[in-house]
Amino acid sequence: MPAVPDFKALANPAIRTLAAYDPGHDIPSLRQRFADAGGLLELGSNENPFGPSPSVLPAVHAELQLLHRYPDPSGMALKREIARLHGIVPERIALGNGSHELLMQLAQVFAGADDEVLLSRYCFAVYPIAAKAVGANLVFVDAYPAGHPMALGHDLDALIAAITPRTKLICFANPNNPTGTWCDSAQLSDFLARVPSDVLVLVDEAYIEYVTDPALTSVLAHGARFPNLIVTRTFSKAYGLAGLRVGYAVADPGLLALMEPIRESFNLNSLALAGARAALADDAHLCSVVAQNAAEREWLTGELRSIGLTVLPSQTNFLLVHFGPETAAIEQALFERGVIVRPMAGYGLEDYLRITVATRPENERLLANLKAVLS
Ligand SMILES: Cc1ncc(COP(=O)(O)O)c(C=O)c1O
What we know:
Number of helices: 14
CATH class of the largest domain: Alpha Beta
Number of strands: 13
Number of domains: 2
Low-confidence stretches: none
CATH topology of the largest domain: Aspartate Aminotransferase, domain 2
Strand content: 5-15%
CATH architecture of the largest domain: 3-Layer(aba) Sandwich
Bound molecules: pyridoxal-5'-phosphate
Helix content: 25-40%
CATH superfamily of the largest domain: Type I PLP-dependent aspartate aminotransferase-like (Major domain)
Order of helices and strands: HHHEHHEHEHEHEHEEEHHHEEHEEEH
Strand order of the largest sheet: 2-8-7-6-5-3-4
Largest sheet: 7 strands, mixed
Radius of gyration: 21 Å
């Protein structure tokens, strides 16, 4: 038998110590385990419990006739429709197999060894992975402390103060995952105006469709004013297409042109392209999802607070809830009852659980289980 090489020694040094993205529990096997016990209650991944537009399924089905053909390599039809939605040209759009893919590409193209990537504490877990994978130095900037009106939210002034000549990229989500917190439009435009033009800013708007606070609108409105701004969006949340994997970035065409050579060929499959187009065309469904989420978010927040829990304000489809020192035991007890929520220890928020806002019957089931566990 030939000797097995020391793969770790062979690997790119930046990759050797990298921990993989943690997607949570093994959901397919848990679905089987709890099939006869009322089913699994999946509240751990911020998916859309209302599902996609009813027009998605026939559109995806129609594509099955062409499975032996490669998909549209540029996804131009989808880009045109996204461009129409935002009132921009398709050249300002890049498509990704989920926005996760675009976050990885962005770091790969624009950050390298010796560069600094600025991140807000409690940022989405993919940004540090993307930055570490290319050997960049991560600089974490403290978020607002508990007790502050924007507790755990991004401190944009602190991010500005942390910029150095080595800073290449600043990344944050607005609203943020896992905290659900947000910066309003005035704060964002003031921030963007203060960032030097050779520092790129990624604003990840994965949850923007869920926002109901009129003080926050998409930063896309500022796109032309700030050529260093990249905005990412996803069809995985409000559009209900997490299983199809479709995301996009909006940025200056010159910036996107540099990402194109490392894009995997045909990175969006034909079912994903067709499904996303159908979802995009059904504005009424999106509005209904957003309205139902907003109503359930408010109701669930009130119910959780009424049993003495601290719930962070949220503009997303999930809530960050403080459970204190018993958090891990509570999460485990919910798990044993088939209720999946997301532990936050990996984010340094050991005393919190993140809970997806679901349908009313699902939210009621969560509450009943939670009350039983807490008593
Ligand atoms: C803030 C944020 N950005 C990006 C993503 C990735 O989304 P996608 O499914 O498009 O890869 C997520 C997924 O949870 C997220 O929370």
